[in-house]
Each structure stands twice: as C-alpha cells, then as structure tokens.
Hints:
Layout: E1 65-69, H1 74-79, H2 89-95, H3 111-114, E2 117-121, H4 135-140, H5 142-152, E3 156-160, H6 162-175, H7 202-210, H8 215-222, E4 237-244, E5 256-262, H9 274-292, E6 301-302
Parallel strand pairs: 1-2, 1-3, 3-5, 4-6
Antiparallel strand pairs: 4-5
Helix pairs in contact: 2-9
Amino acid sequence: MNPTPPPTTSPPAPRKSKRRQAPDSADAPAASSTKRSRSRPPSPTQERQPELQGLPTYLAPNLDVLFLGVNAGVPAAQKQRYFVGGNHFWKCLERGGLTDRLYTPDEDYLLPTTHKLGLTTLVYRPTVGLSCLSKAELRRGVPALLDKLAHSRPRILCVLGKAMWDEIAFTVSNAMGVEVPACPDIESGRKQITSAPTTPSPKKRRASSSGSLTPRQAEKRRAGIETEKGKKHFVYGLQALKVVYPPSDDGTEHRETLFYVTYNPSGRVAFPTIAERYQLFVELKDILERVQQGGAESVDSTL
C-alpha cells in the first residue's frame, strides 16, 4: 500500500500595503500630499479701503453763527458733504429761520456767503460713529477750534451735541484756568433733558408719588430740569462762556463769541423729538437777532 502524500499548502498571499505606491509611469500626475483648502472671500475688513478724508472747514470773517459738528461719518466723508442722509440739520436751519429755504448737503459751501453761517468739525478724522472717538481726541481738537474762532470771529458758536460741549468746557476749565459753570440758569424755562425718559417701576412710582411737591417743583420735574434729589440736569441753549477778542484796527470785526449748545441733529438719535430740535434753533435765531441789535447776553465766564 502506497503511503498517502502529505497535503500541499499554498504559500500565504502577500499582505497588501495601505501605502499608496508611486505610479509606474512618469506621465501620471503625482498625488497631492496636502488637503485642498476651501477658498473664502475676503471680509470687508480685510479688503483694502481707500483712506477717507475729513470735511473741509467753511469760514468767513465776521460770521453770524459757526456750527460745530463732532466729525465726519463715513457717508459724509465719502461725499465730502456736511450732514448727509437722514440728518435733521438742514431742516433745523430752515425751521429756525436761519436760512430762507431748505438747503441740501451739496450746497453746504454756500452758507458763509449767503447767510454768514460757517461749518467745521471738532475732529478731522472720519469714523463710523461718535463711540469711535475718545475723550482725549475730542479735547485735542479744542485748540484748533479756538484758532478758527479767532480767524472768523463768529457772533455765536453753535455746538451740535452735548458730548462735544463737555470736552470743550473741561479743556477750558483745566488748561486755561477758566471756570465754566456746569449748568446755566434754570429759570429760563426751557424744556431740556439729557436722555429719554424712562418709566419708573411701580415701587419707585409709589415712593415718588407719596411725597408732596410744590407747583414749581412739579414743573421743573416735568421739564427734566430738576430730579427728585434736587440735582440739576444740563440745560441746552446759551452757555455761561464767551470768547472776547481785542479790538480790530478798523473796528468792524466782532468783539466776542457766545457759546450755544443744541441736540445732536443726527437722524440716528431717536430722542429728543424733531419739534424740540426745531425749538432750539428758533431760540438760536432769537439770540442772534438780539446780539445783532447790540443786546448784551449775560454770561459768567470769559476767555
């Protein structure tokens, strides 16, 4: 009996390597060793924007009113025009009687020759908004502003916003040694408030209504002039400061400049109402007429 041959076993199949082998042909494209990155469009901040310039100053000798804005916004800097868009400044000029018709931003350069009204800004650098400016930057613009006043000698400098006036008064008080009162005479009766009124909570409402008020106190509180603790709010309008100049050789130049503060005319400011903004320009016109007729406005501090 022939012995049974042992079973034959095939050699194990070679294990396939997970590595990608290089192609045999030199013409085959080489495999990329890096992942393909997704292309993203550049953001607006990454794109290079053209540098914006501030607005020109429109002055003339012996102006009646020089209007002071804080600085140029982006739309105004792009168009090189004052108070563009939904700004209420031009309507306030007409409603206040300072111009005989409604002017447009494209006619801003005409104001010095047609109505003796000038335009300038406290800060030359354009920004998106007032929040982009520091108090130090606002204060650095005060010396240049005083130079403009000495050049044009306006009867009145109209500051378009309390934020600018705070820094002007601070700079004058600290750098020039002139004390500027924080609030003028509240007996003028103007309805001035610093912010939108808020609705008190029921608890505070009951506490405030429990005390008795005199008619005068109630009137002041409604006008936003006096708080419950007796503190005075800022009163817009004529301020307790003026600039006095030396007499000119021919005696025809104005001798002093009064300071007048109005609300910010920006359309983005929801408060106060447009009627209250108009009223301040009406009062500005009344004060200007009294000054033109030789009437003396009483102010406390003099530069």
